[in-house]
Write a structure and sequence with these properties.
This protein has 259 residues and is mainly α. 45% of the residues lie in helices and 10% in strands.
């Protein structure tokens, strides 16, 4: 990895000036301008398709040129194709961080050495914490095997092209989760914090939380009573849902003790 950085450069090409990198024929600014022009042209074509100004005419079959038959070429093996693609990239002399797989390699190598130092010093896994995120990131280097076959390469290119759309869908899902979370909190209003509580008759300080969700309890006179709030006051709502049997009290707890 360091050898490639020395030969091809990290971000900028060592054999090309900064002005040529930014404003040259294959620089960053011209490429962005060409992409903008292509997007504008595709937008104009889509608008012309929606509002056509010409009518299609029938073309006789004799006027349609017949395609020439090409000679059948035996495709090379997927592994050979991947190796030849890497040779092409090496011949181009592209800077190291200009290639997506090189960026993944750098993350994996740095994460591996961080994992090595943490494991060597004994701080990776202790009694109160486990730092395994860097060990997981170091495995990303094995993802290079996905470009060996043509099928997985096609899938990766498709995911790369669909990246902006996937990001938009992710934002929509986050918005939907937040919306339904607010609806759930407003609908239940702390119903999962109410549970049946049993008090020891011989020791009033021994309170046992049974973990049964409830909405009321049976009072000493045999009637249904609403649950108790944190301050011990009776709620001003009618009993509903599960009613704790006699001898137990339904009250709001500061923390849920459900297993």
């Amino acid at each position: 990895m360091f050898a490639r950085m020395v030969v091809t450069g990290l971000i900028l090409d060592p054999e090309t000036t900064l002005q040529a990198t930014l404003f040259g024929p294959s620089g960053i600014v011209p490429r962005l301008s060409r992409r903008f022009d292509r997007a504008q042209a595709s937008l104009q074509r889509s608008q012309s398709k929606t509002h056509p100004t010409w009518k299609s005419r029938s073309v006789p079959n004799s006027a349609i040129p017949t395609p020439n038959r090409k000679q059948t070429i035996i495709p090379e093996a997927p592994f050979q194709k991947a190796i030849s693609h890497q040779h092409v990239l090496s011949a181009q002399g592209r800077p190291f961080l200009r290639h997506s797989w090189h960026r993944i390699d750098m993350i994996a190598v740095i994460a591996f050495w961080i994992t090595f130092l943490l494991a060597l010093s004994g701080h990776e896994a202790t009694a109160d914490r486990h730092i395994y995120i860097f060990r997981a990131l170091s495995v990303l280097r094995a993802g290079r095997l996905l470009v060996v076959t043509s099928g997985t390469t096609t899938i990766l290119h498709s995911l790369k092209r669909a990246g902006p759309l996937l990001i938009t869908v992710s934002f929509f899902l986050i918005f939907a989760f937040a919306l339904f979370s607010i609806i759930g909190v407003q609908s239940f209003r702390g119903s999962y914090r109410r549970q049946c509580v049993l008090t020891d008759p011989f020791n009033s300080t021994n309170v046992i939380q049974l973990g049964q969700l409830c909405g009321g309890y049976i009072a000493a006179d045999g009637t249904e009573a609403p649950f108790l709030l944190l301050d011990g006051q009776v709620a001003d709502v009618s009993p509903k849902g599960y009613i704790c049997p006699m001898g137990q009290v339904c009250e709001v707890s500061s923390c849920t003790a459900l297993s």
